[in-house]
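quick one, 249 residues, struct below
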Amino acid sequence: MAPRVLLLSIFFTVGLLARRSAGLELGLQFGVEPQDIVVSRNKPTLLQCSSPTQNVSFHWTLDNKPLSLVNDSRIQLLTNGSLYFRKVYHKRSGQGPSDQGVYRCIIHTTTGALVSQPAHLRFAFMSHEFAGSGRSFSVAEGDPAVLPCSIDSLPTAEITWQQNSQLLPQSHRYILLDNGTLIINQVQKEDEGDYSCTARNSLVNKTRVSDVSRLSVEATTSLSPLEILTPGSFRTNWTLGDNVTLACV
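---
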C-alpha cells in the first residue's frame, strides 16, 4: 500500500508543477502568494492568498494533498482566497492532528488553474540544552578567545552575554556571531572570568541561561631576539657542546 501512496503523491506533485506552468501561460496571476511562517501553537494564523483575476475559485493543498475544510470550523477559507486558522494545532506524530507542513494555494478558472509557491508552516520552539557551554578556556594575552553559545531555536533566539553575572558592555573587541558565539579580540587580563549566555525566544516566551564557562588569560612571556646570521657565516657542522643560534629571517 505504501508504494502506491508514494506514487500517487509523486503524480500529484508533478501535476501541480505542470498546472502552474499552464496557468501562467493562460494569463492567470496571484496578487499575493502564501509565505513561509513560524507560529505559536493554539494561536490564530493567516496564510494569505489572492488574485486580481476575475471569476476564480480558491483551493488549498497541504503536503501535496487536497486540504479538506468540510466539518472543520477551526479553518476557514476567506473570500479573498486566504486561509484562516482560528488556532493552529501541533501534536507529535501519531498523537493527533498537526497543521505543520507545506501549503499551496490554487486558483481555478474555467480555462485552467495556477498553483502558488510552497509556504512552510512551522511551529516555534526552543531547546532546553545549550551546545558547547560550561567549559573552561585558557587563552594567551593578546590572542582571540572564542566562547560558544549554541541552542536550537525557531525563530533564532536573541543572545546576550554576561561576564561575572554582569551584562557584557559594548566594545569594539567583542564580536557576536549569528549562532551566538562570542569572539573577544586581543584578550586582556581583565577579560578573565566566568561567562554565560542568555537565549530568548519571544514567540514562545521562553528564556534560558547557559552553564558558566571559565575564561583564563595567560600572561605572554618575552623572548630574547634571535641573532640573524648572514649566509656566509652559517655553519652546517657542529660539535657536541657548541652553542647554536638559528636564524629566523
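Confidence is low (pLDDT under 50) at residues 1-15, 226-238.
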